[in-house]
Amino acid sequence: MQDRLHILEDLNMLYIRQMALSLEDTELQRKLDHEIRMREGACKLLAACSQREQALEATKSLLVCNSRILSYMGELQRRKEAQVLGKTSRRPSDSGPPAERSPCRGRVCISDLRIPLMWKDTEYFKNKGDLHRWAVFLLLQLGEHIQDTEMILVDRTLTDISFQSNVLFAEAGPDFELRLELYGACVEEEGALTGGPKRLATKLSSSLGRSSGRRVRASLDSAGGSGSSPILLPTPAVGGPRYHLLAHTTLTLAAVQDGFRTHDLTLASHEENPAWLPLYGSVCCRLAAQPLCLTQPTASGTLRVQQAGEMQNWAQVHGVLKGTNLFCYRQPEDADTGEEPLLTIAVNKETRVRAGELDQALGRPFTLSISNQYGDDEVTHTLQTESREALQSWMEALWQLFFDMSQWKQCCDEIMKIETPAPRKPPQALAKQGSLYHEMAIEPLDDIAAVTDILTQREGARLETPPPWLAMFTNQPALPNPCSPASVAPAPAPAWTHPLPWGRPRTFSLDAVPPDHSPRARSVAPLPPQRSPRTRGLCSKGQPRTWLQSPV
Amino acid sequence: MSYIPGQPVTAVVQRVEIHKLRQGENLILGFSIGGGIDQDPSQNPFSEDKTDKVNGWDMTMVTHDQARKRLTKRSEEVVRLLVTRQSLQKAVQQSMLS
């Protein structure tokens, strides 16, 4: 059975490679080869992993590779079909309907992804037992391109899952569909937590013979994941972590906005699933799109433009149609050097363009006119092109621009800023990720300036000798029983931080000693903490031996 | 000159206002406190930031538990602290000289 699976897998890979070769599509073939090699690498790594977190990263890579291979396969099949159909139905070149206008491509970028969680546990502060953790990441697909975010560890202290990545898709059309899938896996071993569904699989595995049965079970279980067919790409690892699809959604042009928006998530798993996370049900993100017609020039050439008020004197300019403007530069070089154009004519959704019989009266052929409405005034610019062909190509460029604007809609109102994502750093030793509180560093230095300003205004007296209150800081007891006011541990801590044992927000907590498991306060001294309240504030007879610290 | 606990003290303080953060159903401040009149100050790994008042309540003579309770009242969303630290004195001196 095992051998058969091997053979099937090899045959499938062979088939994939042959398809790519026969299509002579070197780009896609190269990408496919690359993914297949990455997949082999990920399988080997997974087999060699000892730590759970390494295994999670390797499984994630495997899942991404599998998804990519399948999507490239799908693309190959589509192209093959198109090729075959193209060959069989021959169209005469000079008849048939003109090619349909297709909209320009654009860059689509999704960033600042945040998925809110909804913990219902009212026992939050009394964390019982170990902190349950999950590893999650997002898989994003647009067309045949698949990209993934980094993997994040989630536990009860997080209010949202926030991904730092920017994901950019370079060749999207205005009819794009960006599919977003959230995958999760338990960081702890699943065995302890699952129950029912495994029993059937165990039965199956034991009846097929242990090793091959385990393989089949692993592949059957992973079939619920990225939709990979189990026989085509069986998961080689046994007992490794398994990612489950937790939620998904599809975003289209309507969701694009130069700002944050919240979208609904379709939840895909239920509470029995070991990787189930309490998702609030929405995802916030910034989805921006930059159609190429806005960022790249679509036409350029020599034009003669009628100067304002001068009927006969037409200036020769170098026109560049870019975005929603026609820039008229004095010289062709000015466009590159950043010189200001002589004239800028707006070309947007409201603009009307006409090829010109209008100016036959002036005796100038091959003209076109561009009219814009500014309030109550209509401003018309008349431009003369060099020849009939030039006029046709300018008109064509303008019609294409109008078409693109009608397709890309709100993306053409203003250019949306897209940052090229920085190359992602390889996953380092996975530290426990904290919540917002990790970033909170209260900087006292700024406030000191304000304080001293106030003091200089009010007091004015010179303080040369150290004032008596500073003695509080010298730790020299005046009485035999040393007592001091409650100290606040500063938020920005020195280098040594130890994670709290029971998952309270991990502030820069100042544990000098490995903590014990008492719920709220930790005792530094070996003696049990003296918790009896002393309302009078007088120190007790025996010397206090402890230094308690509590998070608030 | 030394500080005698139980005696009134005049000190340069800094007023700090903190809005508590919402974490699930609870409001937390996000830092830890240590010490108290019932604690041994010689074991304090830090010597900064002593709290004199919390939302009007005197903190110069409180136990660790009382301090913690005053800071974690569920009904209060904002905590106003009067805090003193050694470096305040230096800062004041520097500003006087300049």
Helix-strand blueprint:
The complex is a heterodimer of chains A (552) and B (98).
Chain A: H1 2-23, H2 26-48, H3 52-88, E1 106-116, E2 134-142, E3 145-148, E4 152-154, E5 160-162, E6 167-172, E7 178-186, H4 196-208, H5 210-222, E8 244-251, E9 260-264, E10 266-267, E11 282-291, H6 292-295, E12 297-306, E13 314-322, E14 325-329, H7 334-337, E15 343-346, E16 352-355, E17 367-374, E18 377-384, H8 388-408, H9 444-458, E19 487-488, E20 549-551
Helix pairs in contact in A: 1-2, 1-3, 2-3, 4-5
Chain B: E1 14-19, E2 21-23, E3 26-28, E4 32-34, E5 50-54, E6 57-58, H1 64-71, E7 78-84, H2 86-97
Antiparallel strand pairs in B: 1-7, 2-3, 5-6, 5-7
Strand fraction of chain A: 15-25%
Spans of chain A of at least 5 consecutive residues whose pLDDT stays below 50 are 92-96, 191-209, 219-232, 428-445, 476-486, 488-541
CATH fold type of chain B: Pdz3 Domain
Q: From the alpha-carbon coordinates, what is the Rg of chain A to the nearest angstrom?
A: 34 Å
Mean pLDDT of chain A: 71
Arithmetic mean of pLDDT of chain B: 72
Any low-confidence stretches of chain B, pLDDT <50, length ≥5?
none
InterPro entries (chain B): PDZ_sf
GO cellular component, one term (chain B): plasma membrane
Protein name (chain B): Tax1-binding protein 3
GO molecular function, one term (chain B): beta-catenin binding
Describe this structure in words.
The complex is a heterodimer of chains A (552) and B (98). With 552 residues, chain A is an alpha+beta fold. Chain A is built from nine helices and 20 strands. In chain A, the strands form three sheets. Chain A has a seven-stranded antiparallel beta sheet. In chain A, strands 2, 3, 4, 7, 8 and 10 form a six-stranded antiparallel beta sheet that branches. In chain A, helix 1 (2-23) runs antiparallel to helix 2, helix 2 packs antiparallel against helix 3 (52-88) and helix 4 (196-208) packs antiparallel against helix 5. The longest helix of chain A is centred in the N-terminal third of the chain and has 37 residues, at 52-88. The radius of gyration of chain A is 34 Å and the shape is flat. In chain A, 30% of the residues are buried. Mean pLDDT of chain A is 71; it is low at 92-96, 191-209, 219-232, 428-445, 476-486 and 488-541. Chain B is an alpha+beta fold and 98 residues long. Chain B has a single domain, classed as Pdz3 Domain (Roll), CATH 2.30.42.10. Helices cover 20% and strands 30% of the residues of chain B. Chain B has two helices and seven strands; from the N terminus they run ββββββαβα. Chain B has helices spanning 64-71, 86-97; strands at 14-19, 21-23, 26-28, 32-34, 50-54, 57-58, 78-84. In chain B, the strands form two sheets. In chain B, strands 1-7-5-6 form a four-stranded antiparallel beta sheet, with no helix packed on it. A two-stranded antiparallel ribbon of chain B has the order 2-3. In chain B, a hairpin with a 2-residue loop joins strand 5 and strand 6. The interface between A and B is large, with 76 and 68 residues. Strand 20 (549-551) of chain A pairs antiparallel with strand 4 of chain B, so a sheet runs across the interface. Chain A: Residues 10-85 form the REM-1 domain. Chain A: GO terms for molecular function: GTPase inhibitor activity. Chain A: This is Rhotekin.
